[in-house]
């Protein structure tokens, strides 16, 4: 029972990796399930057994993207630690994720595939909103603790994400710039912290 299960998981992973490669090189619209099957080294029937449609396959890739967004961002709020120290840890995790080549590849695929599909774009934005809940929850707890000035938590979190992505996401996605090095990451984080705390710290 275990061996067939492992084989099935390996085939599923091969299909996903093939789809990522094909979507990256040819784009979502042009890539066919036949091509994905050939690249994965499996039959077309096997691909359809795992993913009933190209949309389902793409949705699974998006799930991986969203999971990677949240993988390192869940840090509980502490009433005992300085706000700056806690936020610094959160932002370092965020920039570490944004510098990951696999994450950037998945993000490029997702963005390219949504350009011609408003429905897909809306789904992507909705998922992003859910997945960036970590910082929003942290801000909500800091507010309840009286350590931040009144603000809508989701609004403040979106501001912070915007400060980071202006340097560590959009230039890499849209202009092919390299990921930030350690010194550049530190500079972006410290500047974002200065701006955020100057505006919101109680």
Tally the helices: what do you get?
11
The assigned structural class equals mainly alpha
What is the CATH topology classification name of the largest domain?
Tetracycline Repressor, domain 2
Helix content: over 70%
What share of the residues does DSSP label as strand, in percent?
under 5%
Order of helices and strands: HHHHHHHHHHH
Low-confidence region ranges: none
Net shape: elongated
- CATH homology group of the largest domain: Tetracycline Repressor, domain 2
InterPro entries: DNA-bd_HTH_TetR-type_CS, Homeodomain-like_sf, HTH-type_TetR-like_transc_reg, HTH_TetR, Tet_transcr_reg_TetR-rel_C_sf, TetR_C_Proteobacteria
Keywords: DNA-binding
Protein name: TetR/AcrR family transcriptional regulator
Domain HTH tetR-type: 9-69
Topology diagram in text:
Layout (H helix, E strand, L loop, with lengths): L1 H25 L6 H8 L3 H7 L3 H17 L12 H16 L2 H15 L2 H14 L1 H12 L8 H16 L1 H6 L6 H19 L2
Helix pairs in contact: 1-2, 2-3, 4-6, 4-7, 5-11, 6-7, 8-9, 9-11
